[in-house]
């Protein structure tokens, strides 16, 4: 989860988020170089007397500021497209979970795993105990096995929502009447917090998401426990 005064992204907990962080660092270096060049040019123009102000022919300059931006765009676009296709690829997921957004809670259905279904509401502040996070904790976690490809089918019942887990690199709109698909792999056990990222009404900020990644054995025990409930 995020912490106070955080400037960067959350630590990556999935291969997709690791790729996004690498792309962010790659692009940020290019932005720094461009900003430095522009600042240098402005400084030179402000401190050096202007000469050749009547020059009408500057083919070299025209070529540089046309070709150089094109090269920069290609250097940014190619890794961006690569990550886009990697994140859209769903290759033999081990489990499929359907998430439905409501005003204002999430419901989950494990459609191919014992037909488990439950709702996840935000826990009121009065019910929180030490170690739980206000406005982020829910009464029922979405439990998934770690190191396993998980396919998410995301939709909504009423208005637009958005199912978002920053540390897993997942942000998918929940659209009424439409199933959107995404995938992730949690590389380590833990709790991953997220929130609805589409303004969906008065209680938009009160429908958090908690994904709990556990070893496969514990996931199987949890699924049997949910069947008994």
From TrEMBL:
Its membrane topology: Multi-pass membrane protein
Record-linked CDD domains: CcO_II_C
Record field: transmembrane: 27-51, 63-85
Ranges of residues in domain Cytochrome oxidase subunit II transmembrane region profile: 1-91
Domain Cytochrome oxidase subunit II copper A binding: from-to ranges: 92-225
Catalytic activity: 4 Fe(II)-[cytochrome c] + O2 + 8 H(+)(in) = 4 Fe(III)-[cytochrome c] + 2 H2O + 4 H(+)(out)
Keywords: Copper, Electron transport, Magnesium, Membrane, Metal-binding, Mitochondrion, Mitochondrion inner membrane, Respiratory chain, Translocase, Transmembrane, Transmembrane helix, Transport
One term under GO cellular component: mitochondrial inner membrane
Molecular functions (GO terms): copper ion binding; cytochrome-c oxidase activity; oxidoreductase activity
GO BP term, pick one: ATP synthesis coupled electron transport
Compartment(s) where it occurs, according to its Swiss-Prot or TrEMBL record: Mitochondrion inner membrane
A Pfam family recorded for this sequence: COX2_TM
Cofactor(s) this protein requires: Cu cation
Main location: mitochondrion
InterPro entries per UniProt: CcO_II, CcO_II-like_C, CcO_II_C, Copper_CuA, Cupredoxin, Cyt_c_oxidase_su2, Cyt_c_oxidase_su2_TM_dom, Cyt_c_oxidase_su2_TM_sf
Cofactor, how bound (note): Binds a copper A center.
Homology family: Belongs to the cytochrome c oxidase subunit 2 family.
NCBIfam families, alphabetized: CoxB
Function description: Component of the cytochrome c oxidase, the last enzyme in the mitochondrial electron transport chain which drives oxidative phosphorylation. The respiratory chain contains 3 multisubunit complexes succinate dehydrogenase (complex II, CII), ubiquinol-cytochrome c oxidoreductase (cytochrome b-c1 complex, complex III, CIII) and cytochrome c oxidase (complex IV, CIV), that cooperate to transfer electrons derived from NADH and succinate to molecular oxygen, creating an electrochemical gradient over the inner membrane that drives transmembrane transport and the ATP synthase.
Protein name, UniProt field: Cytochrome c oxidase subunit 2
Organism: Scolecomorphus vittatus
